[in-house]
Amino acid sequence: MKPIYVTRSSLPPMDEYVDEIKEIWETHWLTNMGSKHEEFRGLLSEYLDNKNIELFTNGHMALELTIQAHNFPKGAEVITTPFTFASTTHAIVRNGLKPVFCDIKSDDYTIDENCLENLITKKTCAIIPVHVYGNVCNIEAIDEIAKKHNLVVIYDAAHTFGETYKGKSLALYGDAVCYSFHATKVFNSIEGGATCYKDEEIGRRLYDLKNFGIHGPYEVSAVGANAKMNEFCAAMGICNLRHIDEEIEKRKKIHTLYIKELDGIKGVILNSVQKYVKSNYAYFPIVVNEKEAGVSRDDIYDSLVAIGVFPRKYFYPLTSDFSCYKEENDSSLTPIAKYISESILTLPMYADLDDSVVKIICDTIRNCMK
Ligand code: T4K
What we know:
The chain has twelve helices and 17 strands. It has about 375 residues and is of the alpha/beta class.
């Protein structure tokens, strides 16, 4: 068997991409908000049902610049989750803000809304929750808390492309919603990202910030970055968007097969689709309760690697335990996040993953218990 990785990038038929990029040879326009960029922006805006959208070179820059666009005072506190990819915490810290880590829930791994209010201080300016694995945070509760304390809510929605909650696009909840279109995501533009926003002034700032803060021919009004999506990435996004619904449908079948094969194994907790959520089946995490299962997450990881299957321990360690953060943070204050991070394994999940491979993966996990 060829090595099986945690994911495999989706690609459109090659001819389709070649057709899409032909125009670039005619115009010689490669980047800086060209026609592909604008076309992709329009198509995404329709798909995500939000007219307010800005494109970026990647999901991280979408998040980092969205935080910057809010002009929070330096040193202000942002409540966030430690159970995420490095990007979420880095985006906060690189803006001169202090991450304050909130625990997560053991059933969907999103920020625990019941712990939020205890962490709010006079310095708190925002909440940055993550819809981790495509599991949707408790949007209503977070919204209520944010309104009560006058806080901005920026969702890290890197895992949530195409999802809806109560029939409404997730791009419409919160003050801003940041997406990643990285090669490893359900939907990719090779590298890429986008922010959907509520306030049009934020949109104007984002447009400038991704282009060095340039506001007019002779005016630079903010300390911006270079975070413009180029035409080749936009073209890939345009092509992949044509196939996204079909891709998600295929992922759904794989998700269903995993559930069928793994359901009922003692000590292996599966992640089910939440009520009111139309899922994109971005990841397939399992939590291994070592006491009940009799084996650890790492034992299962090793057994899979031994047969050439490479799952990932997303997200271990917690970002608060990274060497660049751990001196200032104590992960024992987020015990559920710590436990989940030490017990979770994300199994291979992508549209073209073979049923036979899923069965081999599940048999290996079952055999591990014996
Ligand atoms: N917020 C959250 C919650 C995120 O998860 C992320 C990114 C971000 C923000 C930031 O968004 P971006 O700035 O990245 O747009 C990967 C991705 O690089 C990263 O985008 C993602 N989260 C994170 C969860 O996973 P690695 O270091 O684990 O990726 P890597 O290179 O080990 O790839 C994983 C597997 O994917 C490979 O084993 C094979 C497959 N693969 C990978 C690449 C690069 C492909 O099939 N094709 C490819 O081109 O971080």
